[in-house]
Design brief:
single chain, 170 residues, alpha/beta, 6-stranded parallel β-sheet, two-stranded antiparallel ribbon, 45% helix
């Protein structure tokens, strides 16, 4: 068993898909079931949850501690992932608590603010050997705890500009 950042997990997986299990803020039964399923199919996994669920259930440090404790019973490579964090402070707290993969969702911000915040997140994640996923644009509907009635799908120019300005792919 090895805790990895998201990019390491993907690179070591030889082009197979990697499941991401939402473990409900740190539910022990969900964590064990996720590891058991991963071992059954010999796949690495992302163990994921959102900021409000983690904070409402265990808190960031206990979330990481419980996952690491349970992981010692398994031989699966895994990453501890924070999904759809809209606040930089949540991402920084997660990284300081031992998360190895984070998703900063700056889609609610202006393009410029999203770039600035993504760069802050990326710098801190690099110092923690964690990977970063970032988001621009909005597709209306509900995803995790984020709801939007409007859509703002980015064009290819904005996508290329975002990647160039944040260097997020590395």
């Amino acid at each position: 068993m090895s805790l990895m950042n998201g990019l390491e997990l993907v690179k070591n997986n030889q082009l197979r898909s990697i499941p991401s299990f939402d473990i409900g803020g740190g539910n022990i039964d969900f964590i064990r079931a996720s590891f058991e399923a991963a071992e059954l199919v010999k796949s690495p996994i992302f163990l994921s949850s959102t900021p409000s669920t983690i904070k409402g259930y265990l808190g960031y440090k206990k979330y990481v501690h419980i996952i690491k404790m349970i992981a010692t019973d398994y031989k699966t490579n895994y990453a501890i992932h924070l999904d759809h964090a809209q606040k930089v402070d949540d991402v920084l707290e997660a990284l300081n608590s031992g998360f190895t993969s984070v998703m900063y969702d700056g889609s609610h911000s202006s393009f410029e603010e999203n770039v600035r915040n993504t760069l802050i997140v990326k710098s801190h994640a690099n110092n923690c050997n964690a990977s970063v996923e970032a988001e621009i644009g909005i597709i209306g509907g509900k995803e995790d705890e984020i709801k939007s009635k409007k859509s703002n799908v980015p064009n290819i120019t904005d996508c290329v500009r975002f990647v160039n300005e944040t260097n997020i792919q590395k």
